Amino acid sequence: MKLFHAIVGAFKNKRTKVRAIIWLGTVLTGLMLVVAIGVSITTTYWFCAAICHYPQTDAVSSYDNSTHTQVACIACHKQPGGDPVSFLMFKVEALFKELPPAIMRTSDMPINPLSGLAMNPTKLPYYHCTQCHRLENRGGAGMRGEPSTSPGIIMDHWAHTDLHITCTACHNRVGHYEGGGWEPYGFPTTDGHDPRHDDFMLMTACYRCHRFSEYDGQVVTTPYPIGQFPGATGECSICHTENFDLVPDNHRVPHFVEDVHGPWYLEIAQNVQEFIDEDDKHFPTYNDMSKYDQSNAAVRALANVPNVRAINYCYTCHTTRFCDDCHGGIRMPHPEGYFRQPHIDDIKANPDSCAICHVTSPINNTQRAAHFAYGTSDGDTCSACHHREKYVPGWQFDPSVNWEWIQHPEATLATGGDSCMSCHDMHTCESCHVNFDRGELRRQQQLHQRGNPADADDQ
After folding, report:
1. All residues at 6 or more sequence positions from 209 whose CB lies less than 8 Å from its CB, including other chains
2. Residue 74 clears pLDDT 50, i.e. is over it
3. Rounded distance, CA 412 to CA 399, Å?
4. How far is CA 285 from each of CA 113, 114, 160, 168, 413, rounded to the nearest angstrom?
5. Fewer CB within 10 Å, N side or C side of the chain?
6. What pLDDT does residue 238 have?
7. How would residue 371 be classed by pLDDT, with cut points 50, 70 and 90?
8. Torsion of CA 65, 66, 68, 70, to 10 degrees
9. Complete DSSP assignment for 22-36
10. CA quadruple 210, 215, 221, 224: dihedral sign
11. Local structure of residue 392 (DSSP, 8 states)
């Protein structure tokens, strides 16, 4: 307080007033130089990479791997043409909000794990990009109604900008490119997220907005609304050029239809459901847009866009009608409760359809029995479900051992056979035991003792 009165007194005293003004100017000039130098240093790549974000090596290395490696970080992460006051406030916010967790290594790893920043039009609006990239200078995209094309893709940028879709809603990995030979350093990640970010240039990201609409009685059910954007029509030629190969490379593997696509679909569907169930705050949208200015058209445009991890990859090309038709008219994937009465009716009406996936040989047990099954890991045969302990109390089905000749006699002796009669009648027993083949029994027993595959007839 005394210092304050002394300074005020110096300005009031005619003898010291000039000296006080000179000292005030000197101090203010010094502060301005400190601020100018500080701002200049803190906007450099060196400061961002080595000081502020040094623990987050993946973010720095992916930037070095991008086409923007010679562009200053602040060119994209700060409003272009901003006034000095907002610029300084931006620096103060970063100093107290972002720098401490980065130094203490308590910030998200990786940074922005679910790419929410790219989907936030208030923090990365379109004019951050258009200060350098202008649609008018992009060949075919320069004129309305003339979509630009990249290898295999037809894209109308104007159609998206007219709906106020921000650039980073699709081009989210331009400044931090994770393609090519880039590999993450593998540091521990927050909440178990993958070190790699989602790439919104893949087809799953397109289907955040352009999902199949209902037609022909079929719809890919999703727990989020279709939204205001046009649904996908299923016509590949709308988005893909004539020379585009519609069959992806991951489908061109040996025995894809027989052995790969089923387990792969189950894995994809499980991952989608686990993400949805993991944390409600990540679903259905990336950000809570209700806290932003609803008069902003870009805010409204991205308000109901679901997270890309909630998109089932299979349904970007196929509807459930495609699956059903390929599986002989049976609902695929099987709906909830299917394993009760519906599957019994389908077995009676379409036994050949069941055989597409499930083994229905006379002995219901083959070398494929231990691969996978819907609802059980015991196998993909009738025996794998109906001859396990749930239906045959006191007996554990072994998918590697022949049922008809080896397991069923042992199960009958062990359980007394009462549980068998809940499904079978005496005619079932008589069909085999009237003309019992002891020679075949001995052969199957010898194969079992030698450890040969259970179903000799299927070899």
Report:
1. 227, 229, 305
2. yes
3. 17
4. 14, 11, 19, 15, 58
5. N
6. 82
7. very low
8. 20
9. HHHHHHHHHHHHHHH
10. positive
11. S
